[in-house]
Amino acid sequence: MAAGGVAARRCWRSGAGLAGAVRGICGSGRATAAVRAEELAERLRKSEEKQRELPKDPTQRWLRELAAMSQQLQQVHPNVLAKILKQRTLYQNEEIVVIDKPYGLPVHGGPGIKNCIADVLPILAKMLENMKAEPLHLCHRLDKETTGVMVLARSKEAAEKIRLLFKTRQVEKIYWAIVLGDPDAVEGVVEIPIVEKEVQSHQSHYKMTLAPKYRLCPEDGKVMKTRGHRHAERAVTRYRRLCAASACSLLELQPITGVKHQIRVHLAYGLGCPILGDHKYSHWSKLAPQKLPEHTLRRLKLEQSKARHLPLHLHAHRLCLPLGQPLDFVCKLPLFFQKTLRKLELDIPKD
Length: 351
Prior knowledge:
By secondary structure, the chain is an alpha+beta fold. The chain is built from 9 helices and 14 strands. It has helices spanning 2-13, 17-52, 58-75, 78-87, 117-128, 156-167, 262-270, 294-300, 335-344; strands at 89-92, 96-101, 137-138, 147-153, 172-180, 187-191, 194-199, 205-210, 214-216, 223-225, 236-245, 248-255, 314-323, 325-330. The strands form 3 sheets. Strands 1, 2, 3, 4, 5, 6, 11, 12, 13 and 14 form a 10-stranded mixed beta sheet that branches. The chain has a two-stranded antiparallel sheet with strand order 7-8. Strands 9-10 form a two-stranded antiparallel ribbon. Helix 1 (2-13) runs antiparallel to helix 2 (17-52) and helix 4 (78-87) crosses helix 5 (117-128).
């Protein structure tokens, strides 16, 4: 402001008049604004360079690369995303296309989502067949962070037929998950209804949770039947422990029903063994990073403050589809999942 005032006085003394004074003030303002813009641009450039720098620690570098991969899938052109999915095709015939869904890619669109599988199905169909191909159709869904086997249909008729198979529970689905802790029984069935509820906290949000039909009487410890929640859905999950180490377990899971977030809720709230990297269902009343056991942090060479970067370790490993003759699809574990298994010394049995 002082520089502008001096410029104005000089303009008046030199006889430039009001127009000259205005030009002097505006010119000074533009120069100041230009300097501020340059400083801001420089700060942004340095910030971006810092973000691009890969950490020296291998674990931190691995987590950063995984986060970057997820962001890239949101930023690429739809044609590029369709090409990535084409390269991840596991099987195709005249009725279906089976893909290996990558980590961090949502199936459906929504707020803040630029790319999703549903949006590129017409492009993928043309890449797989020809330019006149009918768009592919979704038959089921996987969470954004879940990897593995996913079935697409080539026609509406085939999609309806496959959706009916899922609905009538004729499709066998097998998932693998790394969880915190070790279930009391090495195998069993979790059969507890699930319902969506609002979490009342400083950040109100919605979560799926258990709606049990029975509870223990506090007086005598006897099992009592409770009044069920009218919006609760029946949910059944079979599980089997494959191995355990480093305060973690590798579980094989078979969801019999298909409720939203069923596996995650049954493991976290039913068995008390949340999935590694499941920050949503590791707490009920707050949105916070998952708290990891000290032994697990040491094996992962990770600090608790960096645990928020851990990805969800849930993989759709196998799917058996009874279309005429049974079609059995197996999808290998993603690299980040394999690395975690090695770090935690979780050895998959060879049976």
